[in-house]
Write a structure and sequence with these properties.
Elements lengths: L4 H16 L3 H46 L1 H23 L17 H7 L4 H14 L5 H29 L7 H17 L1 H6 L6
Helix pairs in contact: 1-6, 2-3, 2-4, 2-5, 2-6, 2-7, 3-7
Amino acid sequence: MLSSLDLITAFVLFAFVSSITPGPNNTMLLASGVNFGVRRSIPHALGISVGFMVMVLAVGFGLGEVFKAYPPIYTVLRYVGAAYLLYLAWKIATSGPLSVSDSASRKPLGFWGAAAFQWVNPKAWVMAVGAITTYTPAQGYVTNVIVIATVFALVNLPSVCVWVMFGSALRTVLQNPRWLMLFNLLMAALLVISLYPLLFVESSFS
């Protein structure tokens, strides 16, 4: 188990700051809160936290070493992630006002989609690798990896939900279809901008 209170405190702060600051996940949750409200966006938020916890476990138990040994695998993953982010940006950009007639057919990103997205999310990889390499003591390593992954998920969930609630609070402001369209275009643009570190910054696995 993690024995140092200072280390645990530092890690919780790292988990909070990295979870609540802007990134692809929080951009999509903000847009989901605006377009679908809090209740329908909860599976999206849960998928992020659970998917990220699984990613931290995988990195801690050796996936990061696989990428270091075989960098082309991670390169392929990066470009798949870029394509998927562009698809999500297009979906957000083309979202219109949610009327009663299409409320059943239009759906936010669900639990499994959000969980799978973590594997192509550049910010999630940075967070997972940072958590394992910086805050996981070698003594009792297996237990520490499990603790790190669990604590990160517990800190992450309320942090990302802040963005959903903020988006939901903006719904009344964005009742005008023109303002909603501009908001969705802005969110889509931010997702595209988030591709910069994914495509143009050298990864730690190369």
